[in-house]
Amino acid sequence: MSRRLFVLLPASGTALRWRTQGEDGRTLASGLLVDDAEAQIDEDTRVTAIVPGSAVSLHWVELAAASAAQAAAAARHLAADFVAAPIADQHVAAAETADAEGRRLIGIVDKTVMEGWLAALAHHKLDPDEMVPAPLLLPVVEDAVSTLRAGDMLLVRAPDLALETEPALAEMLIGGRPLRPILRDILDLPTYPETPLNLRQGAFRKAAARAVSRADIRRMALLAAGIVAAWLGADLALALRHHFAANALEAEMNTLAAKALPGVAITDPALQLQQRYAASASGGGFTGMAASLFGALQASGTIRLESLRYEPTGAMRATLIAPMGATVDPVKQRMAADGLNLVEGASRSGDNGQRIDVEVSRL
User: Fold this and answer.
1) What single string gives the DSSP state of each residue in 102-163?
2) Nearest in space to 163 (alpha carbons), one of 140, 187, 136
3) Cα separation of 42 and 44, whole Å?
4) Which Pfam families does the UniProt entry name for this protein (predicted)?
């Protein structure tokens, strides 16, 4: 990735400072993420979240491990010696490789703290590629200790030392070693070392990106059908949201829209999918069946849609909500006029009426 977006999570407060750095180290843009502001990034941007070193305990240990899984297990066992809190409540990350002396860097942080950081980033639509304790971004020099003042705290970095603490305590830990003060902001360094430790491991590992599959396209077609069908009228997006009702389906629509429109900020998934898949409205298949069902439900006035799904056989299944004692015959008759057969399945009573399972196929 040619660009890097650095996002600094504060030890306190809610505003997130950020800076985009070009391949040559120049600052391309910078600013603050506050309230509901969303970060604008492209696919070529590597996102690095800089987390407070004061919340992460960093240690170099000897790990006799042949694989990453073995290293993680061994690191977790050794981490219990460094923290007073129950190890079950701690997230432990281990460096992928050992240093010249055969030691590996491990980081220990409370799981709830990790969850809070990720939630704060997600609030601004950020899913970082890596999460790095701030001291690890300072340069390492053999004959001195790099230091950087950050508010009331001091970042410290040496080949065998990395921490963020009060200056008085840092001075005790540094001892008599010479210092190399860095008189710049952590977000304004011209270069950064290769990340020695990424906290996004184990349960907090970033999910791998998945390509849009044929099944996803069919699911998107089902969602798009309700948008592109003429019966929805002028306010297409609003009508679709009202008809689907369930928040889960709207969340799915957001996810699928993001996958269908890579690199595009998703602000109104219904409208954006409408524009993307408008051509599929006249193509029959799932879109045609879904559009017919939506039209029949709209005409009934009393029967609503709860869920909708497709089958590999080409059939479409749905669960409808109808008043107690009502039948789906009006829906069935209207869909028959479109060349579709609706077969009524099991029904069960509930708080809001009866739920009726149906299957739709072509006559």
Assistant:
1) SEEEEEEEEHHHHHHHHHHHHHTT---SEEEEGGGGSPP-TTSEEEEEETTEEEEEETTEEE
2) 136
3) 6
4) GspL_C, T2SSL
Per the DSSP assignment, residues forming a β-bridge with 22 are: none
CB 104 within 8 A of CB 130: no
**Poorest-pLDDT segment among 99-103, 220-224, 276-280:** 276-280
Burial of 291 (0-12, 13-18, 19+ CB in 10 A): buried
Cα–Cα distances in angstroms (integers) from residue 258 to residues 104, 175, 261, in the given order: 38, 52, 5
Domains located in the chain, CATH noted: 3-204 (3.30.420.380), 214-362 (3.30.1360.100)
153 token code pair: 């705290």
What is the rounded CA–CA span in Å between residue 342 and residue 359? 6
**Degrees (nearest 5) of the Cα angle 91, 134, 206?**
45
Residue type at 74 in one-letter notation? A
Q: Which amino acid is at 353?
A: G
Q: What is the pLDDT of residues 107-155, one digit of tens each?
A: 999 999 999 999 999 988 899 999 999 999 999 998 899 999 998 999 9
Task: Name residue 264's amino acid.
Answer: V
According to DSSP, the β-strands at 340-350 and 353-362 are antiparallel
| Coil, strand or helix at 75 | helix
Structure tokens at 293: 């069902």
The pLDDT tens digits for 230-261 are 344 434 444 444 444 444 455 655 665 565 55
Angle at CA 19, nearest 5°, toward 122 and 59? 75
d(CA 332, CA 338): 10
DSSP category for residue 280: G
* Residue 317 φ then ψ, to 5°: -110, 145
Q: Indicate the helix (H) or strand (E) that contains 21.
A: strand 16-21
| Other Cβ atoms within 10 Å of 33 Cβ, number | 21
Q: Show the CA angle centred on residue 79, arms to residues 59 and 180, nearest 5°.
A: 10
